[in-house]
Amino acid sequence: ATNNPEFIWFNGELKPWQEAQVHVLTHAIHYGSSVFEGIRVYDTPNGPQVFRLKEHVQRLFDSAKIYRMEVPFDFQTISDACKQAVAANGLASAYLRPIAFYGNVGLGLTPPRVPVDVAIAAFQWGAYLGEEGLENGVDVCVTSWNRLAPNTMPTGAKAGGNYLSSQLISMEAKRHGYHEGIAMDINGMISEGAGENLFIIRDNVIFTPPLSGCILPGITRNTAITLAKKFGYEVREELIARESLYLADEIFMTGTAAEIVPVRSVDQIAVGSGKKGEITDKMQKAFFGLFDGSTTDEWGWLEPVNS
Ligand code: PMP
Fold first, then answer.
1. What number does the ligand 1 atom closest to the CA of 192 have?
2. In Å, what is the CA distance from 19 to each residue of 7, 9, 45, 99, 290?
3. ipTM score of the complex?
4. Domain residues for 73?
5. How far is ligand 1, taken at its centre, from the CA of residue 202, in Å?
6. Ligand 1 atom at minimal distance to the Cα of residue 56
7. Ligand 1 atom closest to residue 166's alpha carbon, by position in its atom list
8. pLDDT tens digits for 39-75?
9. Residue 176 sits in the same domain as residue 200
């Protein structure tokens, strides 16, 4: 890959890319025993800024707590390390990938709580569902796979193993020619995309599935809710039936990698006019405006890399 960063933060030190390695018997490779984050850094008029770093680091610690994993660095160290990983590579914008995992702890299924390895990589990553998707919308399908059921594997933790579910959803969607797949939860209600939360708009009301154990509590989801409420829209976090996808005026998905992306069709049924909707456009402008300065960051969501 051409996108490899020169340095990766690994267990407290910046290491050259080729030295940030793990063994083939790494516990996390065999059992998915890792927790991780995806964080974006934007190139703003005030220099590179990390978006909602606190919330992402908190979610990393929350995910670890669910799995009784002891992260051997404190909140501040991880936060600073995220910035170091960006700065060390001279990146103006970046995608950050902090990960805590069980490494060389043997292959017993129940991991000891320590040692835990922590790595943070920063690299460039463009629009996850394409620049064109951001403008014209993406085509999605409802996948045949259900999202993880509550009390099977916690979707509230951003854990490595969960992404086998996301891979099945996304691979099936792509195999059938769609950009992304949306999964129903175990009760047949809408949960989320493979790596995005979902918003549905009908008659100017914005609906999104609740935090009821079937979705990741997305930080972009929270951002979108906050911005929508500021615009005065009614936002309802409630269970949504599948047919709402087909009757929506507008649909958009949110995620750190995906950002705010319009959905133009679901199962080959056009969403509204089949183009980016008015409210979605407003949401996108407000969101991306945070990074060019046209939206005032009244929430303290941006943190400079070089502080
Ligand atoms: N759901 C899943 C399954 C995800 O992987 C992601 C991406 N982290 C999201 C939702 C969106 O979360 P966030 O906005 O915090 O990136």
1. 1
2. 9, 10, 34, 16, 36
3. 0.99
4. 7-123
5. 23
6. 15
7. 3
8. 999 999 999 999 999 999 999 999 999 999 999 999 9
9. yes
Provide the CATH number for the domain around residue 106: 3.30.470.10
Active-site annotation holder among 15, 65, 83, 158? 158
The model's pLDDT over 118-166, given as tens digits with 9 standing for 90+, comes to: 999 999 998 888 899 999 999 999 999 999 999 999 999 999 999 999 9
Last residue of a domain, one of 123, 148, 164: 123
Whether residue 230 lies in the annotated active site: no
Backbone angles phi, psi at 6, to 5 degrees: -70, -40
What burial letters (b/e) apply to 30-48, b meaning 16+ CB within 10 Å?
A: ebbbbbbbbbbbbebeeeb
Q: Is the model more confident about 112 or about 58?
A: 58
69 and 144 share a domain? no
Token couple for 100? 């805590």
Q: Which residues line ligand 1 (CB under 6 A)?
A: 38, 166, 192, 195-197, 216, 218-221, 254-256
